[in-house]
Amino acid sequence: MRKYFRILRYAARDQVAYLPAFLARNLFFVIILFIFSSLWKVIYAGQSLIAGFSVVQALWYLTFTETVELSKSRLLTRIQGEVKDGSLAVTMTRPYSYPLSHFFHAMGESMVRLLPILAVGFLFATLFVGPLPGYFKALPFGLILLLCGMALDTLWLLCIGLLAFWSEEVSPYYWIIQKLIFILGGLFIPIDMFPDWLSGIARTLPFAFSAYWPAYTMVSFSWRAFFTGLAGAACYIGALSAVAALLFGLGKRRVHAQGG
To answer: What pLDDT tens digit does each residue of the chain (260 aa) get?
Structure first.
């Protein structure tokens, strides 16, 4: 595994050079926080809690879900581009696993993006609604789940990217998964605010472990929430890893059959 961690380290180092441009592209994150802080204050007028969330928790929740979403790498377009221009014929001959190298490269990029987005969220959420109680106590455990959420998102991108072996344009598949994370993953609104029948289902789906469980653990820390999020993420990471391995195995034969 040392070579894959080396890939992760090199990708992280390279990404540092592009951080100013990355932050400039994501200034709209501050606009999103401002809009939602105004919206939640109106919704919470005269109410201290909704579905167990205070207005402070509701906005801070959004900062953590958006941290995972905005930290995503461009893994999907990278794989799609390699299939379209034929460069994967060279990449696949290198002495390492094609899907693993892409996964660790993408994780290296995402991990560097994670911290500045967290810092921006911390600054402006504190400015708009005030500090989050228990933030620093929950932070180490929340970071673990945030990394798990990033790994899940990266595996989704990897699996969708590998579909380029059959369909060169895979963006529509990504849009479907992204919208499922937005809605059933609780990206903008905590799943607790859904109808009971829907929230019970949504909490168990893989999309919730990308967004809801990391954010919920941060704003309402408990050992039960942490271990639930960790166990669920581990199961789905294993399942998506198996799907990625299967897709690559089938796709590799297809490339060989077509001559590259």
So the answer is: 788 888 888 888 877 777 777 777 677 888 889 999 999 989 888 788 998 899 999 999 999 999 888 888 888 888 888 887 777 767 777 778 888 988 998 999 888 888 888 988 999 999 999 999 999 999 999 999 999 999 999 999 999 999 988 887 888 999 999 999 999 999 999 999 999 999 999 999 999 999 999 999 999 999 999 999 999 999 999 999 999 999 988 887 766 544 44
Neighbouring residues of 113: CB distance < 8 A, sequence distance ≥ 6:
15, 19, 22, 70, 71
Instruction: Give me the count of residues in the chain.
Output: 260
234's tokens: 């581990």
Q: How many CA atoms lie within 13 A of 28 on its CB side?
A: 4
Q: How far apart are CA 117 and CA 105, in angstroms?
A: 19
DSSP state of 131: P
Residue 92, Cβ density class (10 Å: 0-12 exposed, 13-18 middle, ≥19 buried): middle
The number of folded domains in the chain is 1
DSSP 98-126: HHHHHHHHHHHHHHHHHHHHHHHHHHHHH
* Token pair listed for 131: 């500090």
> For the chain, first and last CA: distance in Å?
28
Q: Which residue has the tokens 């299939």?
A: 83
pTM of the predicted model, to two decimals? 0.89
Domain hosting 51: range is 2-258
- Token pair 């961690």 is found at 5
User: What stretch of H or E contains 29?
Assistant: helix 28-43
Q: Is 27 helix (H, G, I), strand (E, B) or coil?
A: coil
The one-letter code for the residue type at 246 is L
Q: Are 202 and 212 in contact (CB under 8 A)?
A: yes
